[in-house]
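User: Can you help me understand a structure? I only have the sequence.
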Amino acid sequence: MKPLYIIPARGGSKSIPRKNIRPLGGKPLIAYTIAAALEAAAQLGGHVMLSTDDTEIASVARSCGLTVDYMRPASLGLDTTGSREVMLDAMDWATAHGICYDCVILLQPTSPLRTAGHILEAAQLYDDAVRRGEHVDMVTSVCPSGVNPYYNLFETDADGYMHVCKGHGLYTRRQDCPEVYQQNGAVYVINPQSLRKMNLGEFPRRIPHIMPAECSIDLDTPADWEAAEKHFLK
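Assistant: Let's start by predicting it. Here is the structure, written out as tokens:
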């Protein structure tokens, strides 16, 4: 494998201002992802890229040992910018600068408990599928879900009546329901050709990499940050 690891870190976070470089457990948040990416690359190979539009974030990343040669265009630092556009621009830059890769590994800084081991496990699942001749679009990290569409997730129909989201609604015990997972945002191992054709949500061939719930915190709100701080205080 020749992965291109992309760490997206725009400067304009609003839910948690400046969260990518905000101290958590005595380190800037982004330091955890950089360390995991560099350790994975040391074992698996590949090139680690930061995608940021913010010079301060770039400076912090350099202080964490990451070479930063590429800066994301300001037009890709908006609230409305999607992950796909960010990755495609970084991929184009890498290709133009002679960096060869056969998969993209997206690592969001908001998953500080994700380790190099988790990255390597997800990459192995992707590589195994490719070696079997499968056309896989993505391996994505997930964790067991606390709610289940066969049991305790409901929606309303056109008449306003509520019914279970999926299945016949006759399950009386959660453990009898089909197992379901939620994406935890920690690791995405992506087929570059698939990414150039469609959005991530359109991928028809996704393989789950199951991570423990305790490693799956995703920092999106101040409450998430408080939970992460409690973890680092243990």
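Now, to help you interpret it: The two ends are 37 Å apart (CA to CA). The mean pLDDT is 94. Let me know which part you'd like to focus on.
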